[in-house]
């Protein structure tokens, strides 16, 4: 939802959107975002209302669906606001990280261009790919920068830095913890 809205807002106010009616793009982006949110909420409510014990069908299908539905949480207003707040904070941190990384490569993006950059990067990781999104992230970053008449090579470099610094640091910490647990004789379950 947030990704669709970010892309719509970014495209509406980007310099390459010449001749595009910003209002219609904003309304479309907001509408699509709200539609996706409403569909997800409706599915959660529908799943919770089904009496899974009364359904007839193959046990291999009904059993797991019923167990999953038992864990589905029907959000209340307070938890939805908390979720929205967390989402805004996470996307703001992601955007700030990418903006800072691009500045280190001497690439300056406006706020709308950054929204398109972050949104395209987020959508690119949905494509099945190699570990750490090698290839698709480079392509997405390079395409977005080239759309803004900026060097595509900076997009490739930015994606590689994201993979090495962000994903690589998490993998390194996980490897160190695994080795520590192996050497100390602790199993992950006993921690």
Quickly describe the structure.
By secondary structure, this protein is mostly helical. The chain is built from seven helices and no strands.
Strand content: under 5%
Mean pLDDT: 78
- Can you count the beta strands? 0
CA distance, first residue to last residue: 36 Å
What would you report as the Rg, rounded to the nearest angstrom?
A: 21 Å
Principal-axis shape equals globular
The largest pleated sheet is described as: none
Name the assembly state: single chain
Low-pLDDT ranges: none
Secondary-structure-based class equals mainly alpha
Structure description:
This protein is an all-alpha fold and 191 residues long. 73% of the residues lie in helices and 0% in strands. It is built from 7 helices and no strands. The radius of gyration is 21 Å and the shape is globular. The chain starts with a helix and ends in a 7-residue tail after the last helix.
Secondary-structure topology with pairs:
Elements lengths: L1 H12 L8 H28 L9 H12 L6 H28 L6 H14 L11 H12 L4 H33 L7
Annotation keywords:
single chain; mainly alpha; 7 helices; 73% helix
């Amino acid at each position: 939802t947030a990704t669709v809205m970010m892309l719509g807002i970014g495209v509406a106010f980007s310099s390459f959107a010449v001749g595009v009616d910003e209002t219609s793009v904003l309304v479309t982006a907001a509408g699509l975002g709200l539609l996706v949110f409403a569909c997800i909420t409706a599915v959660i409510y529908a799943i919770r209302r089904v009496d899974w014990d009364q359904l007839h069908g193959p046990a291999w299908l009904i059993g797991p669906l019923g167990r999953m539905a038992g864990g589905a949480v029907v959000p209340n207003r307070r938890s939805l606001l908390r979720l929205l707040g967390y989402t805004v904070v996470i996307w703001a941190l992601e955007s700030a990280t990418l903006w800072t990384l691009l500045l280190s490569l001497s690439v300056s993006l406006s706020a709308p261009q950054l929204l398109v950059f972050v949104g395209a990067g987020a959508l690119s990781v949905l494509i099945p790919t190699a570990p750490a999104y090698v290839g698709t992230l480079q392509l997405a970053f390079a395409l977005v920068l080239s759309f803004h008449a900026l060097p595509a090579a900076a997009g490739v470099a930015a994606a590689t830095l994201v993979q090495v610094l962000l994903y690589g640091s998490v993998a390194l910490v996980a490897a160190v913890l695994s080795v520590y647990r192996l050497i100390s004789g602790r199993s992950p379950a006993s921690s």
